[in-house]
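As a warm-up, study this chain.
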Amino acid sequence: MNPEESLDIITRMVSDTRRSILQQSYVPFITWGTVTIVVGMLVYFLVKSTGDFRCYYCWLLLPLIGAPLTKRFQPSTKLPRTGITTSLKSIWAMLAVLLAAFTVASFIISFNIMFIILLLLSIGSYVTGAIISYPFLKYSSIVGFVGALILMFFVWGVDQLPIFSAAVSVMMIIPGIKMKRDLNI
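Now compare it with the structure written out below.
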């Protein structure tokens, strides 16, 4: 085997791994992003129309809807076990624990949960984009960082939800759709 053939094999293996990771990544971005926006807007409209802040408990629907949808639409091909896939699973598992912990804590203590959740989702999206060398995901996550700053300093209460939803759309759903389209090319 000459050096060109070796380089071609290595390039093809890296490309196949990246393609496989994109194939496994777009579904969670689209499903969790969509469910987050739907539940967020449900909470927004219920609180705005009723004034009852117990409507925030609707956020508990998120994992009940998001997990089965992600499992349902996840491609059946198994992701090869690599350092990249292991790292991404570990990062998102830790973020899921943090998101759940902060969400539960927000029902006990009052603090700006939308800021924290958007910040954590932005970090996860940025890191995922950086690890899989997908600039569109990396740069779209900047919208989440900007949105988190807006939620921290300029908008409060239930009025945060439309901004939160817009940021989630730009940093999760749109990149997920682009990943899927890139795979179909």
